Amino acid sequence: MDRTWPKSGVDDALYYINSGYKPANLHQWGPGVRDVYALHLVITGRGKLEQGGSVFSLEAGQSFIIFPNQEIFYYPDLEDPWEYVWVEFHGKDASRLVELTQFSELQPVVTEAPDTLQPFYDLEWSVGASYLEQMRADAKVKVLLSYYMEYFPRQAEAEPKDYVWMARTYIEQNYWKPTLTVTEIVQAVNLERSYLFRRFKAATGESISAYLTSYRIRRACELLKLSGLSIQSIAYSVGYHDPLYFSRVFKKATSHTPSAYMMLHQKK
C-alpha cells in the first residue's frame, strides 16, 4: 500500500505498512524477496520457512520474521495447514528495534511467548486513513515489537545496568518537582543507598543532592537567559516554590542574584 507521509522525519521512523489474518489453507509465498519487515505469528497448524539455505519448521505459538531483501519461501503443512496473523513495517527505526530481539537473518524464528501476542497484531489501516490514524498504527507496531523485545531479548548483547545514568536521568526528568528527594531517587534506581552514593560520586564528582541542585541551577540559568519569564516563574520551573530561597541557592552557586544574572545576559 502507498502512504502519504509528512515531508520530514520519514527516513528515521518506524512505520506500519499492512497487516492481516490468513485462515488455514494452502497459500504459499515465494521464492522471492520483500522490501519490508513482515512479522508473523502462527495461531494453529504447521508450516515451513526457507531462508538462507535453512528450513525452519513452525507450529502454533511460534513467530517468524521476513527481513527486507532476503530471499524466502514459506508454505503450509499439507496435512495441518497453518493459520496465522502478520504485520508489515519498515523504516530505519525498524531495524534498530528488531535487533533488540532474538530475531536475526540466521535465526528468523522464536518460540512461543508466555502470553498470546495475537491481539497486538490487530492493526487496521486503509488507503485514505488520516495522518493521526497512521500515527496510531505506527505506535501499535512499536508496542508489538516491545513485547518481542521483552519476551525474546537479545540477552547476549545486554549491557549491565548503568545505575549512575539511571539516577542522573531520573533527576533530569524530575528536577522541577519541589518534593523530589534523594530518597526518591534512590528508590527509583532500586540500588542500595550507600553503594549508589559511592558510584555516583566517583562518576560525577558530586553527591546526588549536589547534582540535583547544580542541575536545577543550570536549568535556571538557561531560563534566565532566554525565557523572559519572571524570577518567580523560573523558581517554580526548577523545583523551588520559595523564590527567596531559590535566590539564595542561585547566588551561592553563581555569585549573582537571579535578577543580576538576567540583566548580565540580556540580549543587547
UniProtKB/TrEMBL annotation:
Entry superkingdom: Bacteria
PROSITE patterns: HTH_ARAC_FAMILY_1 (PS00041), HTH_ARAC_FAMILY_2 (PS01124)
Entry keywords, A to Z: DNA-binding, Transcription, Transcription regulation
Domain HTH araC/xylS-type, residue spans: 165-264
Signal peptide: none
SMART domains: HTH_ARAC (SM00342)
Keyword DNA-binding recorded: yes
Record bears the keyword Metal-binding: no
InterPro entries: AraC-bd, Homeodomain-like_sf, HTH-like, HTH_AraC, HTH_AraC-typ_CS
Protein name (database record): AraC family transcriptional regulator
Organism: Paenibacillus silvae
Gene (name only): msmR
